[in-house]
Amino acid sequence: MTKASPDVISRAGELRDIITEYNYQYYVLDDPRVPDAEYDRLFRELQDLEAQYPDIVTPDTPTRRVGASVETTFEEVVHRIPMLSLDNAFSDEELRDFDRRVRDRLKTEDDIEYVCEPKLDGLAVSLHYESGVLTRAATRGDGYTGEDITANIRTIPSVPLKLRGDNVPELVEVRGEVYMPREGSKP
Fold this sequence. Notes:
Elements: H1 6-28, H2 36-52, E1 76-78, H3 92-106, E2 123-130, E3 133-139, E4 145-147, H4 150-153, E5 171-178
Antiparallel strand pairs: 1-4, 2-3, 2-5
Keywords: DNA damage, DNA repair, DNA replication, Ligase, Magnesium, Metal-binding, NAD, Zinc
Protein name: NAD-dependent DNA ligase N-terminal domain-containing protein
GO molecular function: DNA ligase (NAD+) activity; metal ion binding
C-alpha cells in the first residue's frame, strides 16, 4: 500500500470539509447551494482517494455515511451516566409538584423557564463527540447498558459526524430520540 503524500492528505481533508458543508446546507438548512453534478464529482474524488489510501479515512468522513454496511451484531456499551426515563405529568398538580422539586433542588424561588415539547416515541440514543467528531452512538438499553449503533447512526444525514463552530468542548454527549415520521416510512 502506497503512503499518502501531504498533498493527498490535505486534499482529502479539504474535500471532507466541503462535502460536510454541502451536506449541512442540503440536509439541515434545506438549501442546497451546489449542483448535484458538482457534489457527485467531489464525493467521487474523495471516495477514490480513500480507496487508494485507506490510511487517510477518518471517523467523520462523509463517504461512510450513506450506504455503509449495517452491523448485524451490536457490542454492549456501558453508559457513564445512566440513561433514565423522564417522568410524565398528567395534571396541573403534577406540574406544580415537578416545579417544586426543581426549585428545591436548585435552592431558589426565582422564576424558572421551562420548555415543553411533544412526546415522540422513538429509539433513545446517546451520541458521543470527542474533539467535535462523532465517536460513538448507543441505544439506551436498560438505562445502564445499551448497544453500540455508531455505524447505523452515521447513515442518518441530519446527525452531524463533526460538530460545527469554534470552541467545541473536548467531550460532548447528546441524548435524544431517533424517529421516523409516518411520511418517511411510505414507499
